[in-house]
Amino acid sequence: MRGLVAPFLLASLLLPGCSSRRDLEGELVDAARHGKVQQVNSLLARGVDINAREETEDGETAVIAAAAEGKAIVLDLLIARGADVNAISGQGATALTSSASHGRADIVRSLLTAGAKPDIKDWTGWTPLLLAARSGHLYVVKLLVEAGANPGVADPQGKLPAVWAREGGYGQVAAVLEDAAKPH
């Protein structure tokens, strides 16, 4: 009887409908990306690693995928379950850089409250504040500055967030950044 267990387990992994660990991890990221709360809960209950990366070029985690797509309910669930809010994807993005660049203030607020580092850089050297300033996302810029993001951190070419905001025609954003940069 014992000799039949190993072949049975191996065969069950190969049968259609039986998912490997990596498949389940990819399903978790995909479910988070599409806001499928019940599926995320189910996969986590099955023991899928909450911080696993999908096996694609993007290499996103569930937190990064949910944040990038603005799936606040799933993001809050993942945070409550202990997901790493500072994880970096295979492309160098973080949940905070993705949500800041898209102007998702509610997502940015949740991430900062959960301990996301406001000055975390993606692999290209851009901070969430730089990305939000370049795109003129006033409320995101305010949230990041209030959380301690440094307006004096420049992009890899030496351009400050306030300069990006001014060049983009976002005067209010530039004013917030210039005021934050003053010694208090």
Task: Report on this structure.
The termini are far apart. It is built from eleven helices and no strands. 55% of the residues lie in helices and 0% in strands. It has a domain at 19-93: Ankyrin repeat-containing domain (Serine Threonine Protein Phosphatase 5, Tetratricopeptide repeat, Alpha Horseshoe), CATH 1.25.40.20. With 184 residues, the protein is mainly alpha-helical. The longest helix has 13 residues, at 2-14.
Distance between the termini: 76 Å
Query: What about the largest sheet?
Result: none
Broad structural category: mainly alpha
Task: Give a count of the beta strands, DSSP E runs of length 2 or more.
Answer: 0
Which CATH first-tier class of the domain at 19-93 would you pick?
A: Mainly Alpha
Q: What's the architecture of the domain at 19-93, going by CATH?
A: Alpha Horseshoe
- Our estimate of the beta-strand percent is under 5%
CATH T-level topology of the domain at 19-93: Serine Threonine Protein Phosphatase 5, Tetratricopeptide repeat
- The CATH superfamily of the domain at 19-93 appears as Ankyrin repeat-containing domain
What's the quaternary structure here? single chain
Query: Which spans of ≥5 residues are poorly predicted at pLDDT below 50?
Result: 1-16
Q: Which overall shape is indicated by the principal axes computed on the Cα atoms?
A: elongated
What is the ordering of alpha helices and beta strands?
A: HHHHHHHHHHH
Our Rg estimate from Cα atoms comes to: 20 Å
